[in-house]
Amino acid sequence: MSASTRSIADLFAFDALIDDEERAIASTVADFGAKRLRPHVSQWFEDGTLPARDLALELGELGVFGMHLQGYGCAGTSAVSYGLACLELEAVDSGLRSFVSVQGSLAMFAIRAFGSDEQREEWLPRMAKGEAIGCFGLTEPDFGSNPAGMRTAAKRDGDDWILNGAKMWITNAPVADVAVVWAKTDLAEGARGVRGFVVPTDTPGFSAPEIKHKMSLRASITGEIVLEDVRLPASAMLPGVEGLRGPLSCLNEARFGIVFGAIGAARDCLQTAIDYAGTREVFDKPLAGYQITQTKVADMALEVGKGFLLAMHLGRQKDAGKIAPEQVSLGKLNNVREAIAIARECRTLLGANGITLEYPVIRHANNLESVLTYEGTSEMHQLMIGKALTGWDAFR
Asked: Is residue 1 part of a domain?
């Protein structure tokens, strides 16, 4: 790098937007990523695996699991601090941010927000430490964007519940100790519509076969959930919520982390491309010295900067208790869409080297294909924003 080179963060003066505690958290997570994760993540991606048990304990010690939740061993940080942690994790790999997000913003959040005291005390301290891994069962093989169509059913049998059904594309499922599973109940049985259940994965009838042959999020363990006459006590039901409001509020928590996380992936791609262009010689001078390279870099830096500013604004709104679901949709739609465009453009700057795992760009690009569609597709977020602006529900 030349002496006059400025970092993306420095160019936009990002540091002025965060306080000392937030800066320290982001730095700690970035340091963990640099020392523990980056040296291995390309191999994990190539092998299609993740040392989930070991990493869970290390991430628990780092304090990122459920870090924005209060009590039960959780750190109770601000939403912005959690977002910055997600940014630094996804700067390494989207699969690693997903691991933390599913644990904290889906499974732990559901138990913390809607669980009984007994459920919270049994699971949250262990999950915060990484001693227990959780997953979140909502999406089904035939119902993704329309969770109301779910077929997984919970039927009363005396004081117990019997669950039957299947869930699909469930992060952490094959290695999880506990699953938060959403199922339809019979209205005549005293429970209204969709309810959540805390399901230990060693319960008879529960299985979670791993999904193989993925070309995206390969450094993440994904599976199905199969429920065959899974018998649960009445105490397994989450008592604090009825209907789809429960799982959708959990998804909103996870989407918030993506708003920040996607910018981490984009930043890593762009910085990689800038560094590469500074050393790659083309026609006797560095690639960085050409106008077309600099216009690409400038345009991408603008989108990273705007995306970070949007994420920070939404984070401050969330910390003030003023954020609305459609505002999270704004962040998720914009930042993921721009991140994947940046990853693809950076790949062109690296030429053939851009398709190898020696550099992170193609890995980020592949991962972002999944991030683009999970926790709500771009189209669903467009419709949520459209409904907020027009008042019309156009989902059907």
From this structure: no
Note whether 332 and 369 are same-domain residues: yes
| Among candidate residues 260, 278, 293, the one with its CA nearest the CA of residue 78 | 260
Alpha-carbon gap, residue 168 to 73, rounded angstroms? 30
Mean pLDDT value of segment 165-177: 97
Per-residue tokens: 60: 């628990």
Q: Which of 118, 189, 375, 379 is catalytic?
A: 375
Confirm whether 88 is a catalytic residue.
Answer: no
150 and 200 share one domain: yes
Q: Which tens digits make up the pLDDT trace of 236-291?
A: 999 999 999 999 999 999 999 999 999 999 999 999 999 999 999 999 999 999 99
In angstroms, the CA 163 to CA 184 distance is 9
Average pLDDT, the chain: 95
CB-based contact 221:211 (threshold 8 Å): no
CATH classification at residue 162: 2.40.110.10
Q: What is the pTM of this model?
A: 0.94
